Amino acid sequence: MPTSVPVESYASFLNTRAARRKPSPIRALQAVLATAPAGLISLGGGMPNPALFPFSGISVTLRDGTVLSLSEESVRAALQYSPTPGIPELVSRLERVQRGEHSPPGAAGDRMAVMVGTGSQDLLAKAFDTFLDEETPVVIEAPTYSGTLAALEPIGCPLITIPSSTDGTGIDVGAVEELAAAFESGERAGPRPRLIYVIPTAGNPTGATMPLENRRRLYAAARRLGSLIIEDDPYRFLDFGEVVDPADADADAAAAAARSSTPVARTPSLLSMDEDGRVLRFDSFSKLLSAGLRIGTVTGPKELVDALGLHAQASCLHTSGVSQALVLELFRHWGVGDKTPPAEDGSARCMGDMEAHIAEVASFYRSQRDACIEAINKHLRDPGLAELYAVPSGGMFAWIKVPGLADTTALVKERAAAAGVLFVPGSAFVPGGGSAHSAFVRASFSVASHEQLDEAFRRFASAIRDSGSD
């Protein structure tokens, strides 16, 4: 890996709109109020009188029957305006979690900051709107998350598409290295990519997880290009800690190996190797706690996180206080972020009892994955009707190719729907909007029962056969 070259200034990464944003003097008062002594009399910000709010208490019941009731003070904080980065105690706990989970080295660790957002999707959209314009390229994998395309394509920025690797390990890092070499040699002219966007764990839609060595190579390529890395990692805690070869001649043996695998330590993140301060990491609690709470985080250099904070000050002000307060109360109950890493027992992580919940969630989705792969092998792969890009090593998606079709949209919307099964056509994950084509479909195995998964792929097999008879 090249010698560390810390990013000294982030001004060149901001677009014109972001460079014009200034801190809100009224929003700045929220930080003062959050730490003010009890006797402070505020005649500052236009905060509504909490005595008129119709709510007097908030409590939730956990699945084990435990009732969590917010204190009067917590209820007041939840219902009132709060600092843009998040409720201070929640942010502090999240900072300890991120340091324990990722431990960014050197100067990047010293400059690390965390902000709470209304889901990672909202934070990603703010990031793209902060860094990109019509002249600034961004590197993305093709296929990639449709929500990312929905945020990028209206900006009009040039999309440098890198294909997924042929070995089922996500973005083709070799192609990114070739891109860097082309800019270095002068073979490729024009602006270098300002951002590299990647989903390193259980990619959506492919289900692929980048091996550690590929992550190291991608970081090195970002250094050569002078790019920031947008590490979108909502499925990190749905990592099964295993890799299964989809080309295994013995499909039953591959499925059995997947079922018997014991999860290992989560693959080190790109943030964990960020010596320069060029990684902006996005996490989500939607898959782990609740999608409806809309709680996500962005972690990275303070200057970049603050730039997203200025965007939030002019839009949503802050994420729902009620959602934040519920997550904070759960974290207190579970002991998440109680300790400053490394803990007294020598462990780096400070997840508390949430680690057991993470294991339960990952185990459930691993079982769902196994049932999905078994059904795909039985109804699609063995009869030669479809191919699996990779056995997912995490997450909740399988990426399936239907050979002989240039595009699966009609198959999904007409034949499959008529047969009583629904997928997402692969074109939804390819840049190009209505003109995009793909021979793939994405299947989600998160909600359907094992019996329903088997029946779904039986119906899909029937739809493929019917389409071939036309």
Automatic annotation (TrEMBL):
It holds the Pfam family Aminotran_1_2. The keyword Magnesium does not apply. Gene3D superfamilies: Type I PLP-dependent aspartate aminotransferase-like (Major domain). One of its GO terms (biological process) is alpha-amino acid metabolic process. Coiled coil: none annotated. Residues 76-459 form the Aminotransferase class I/classII large domain. This is Aminotransferase class I/classII large domain-containing protein.
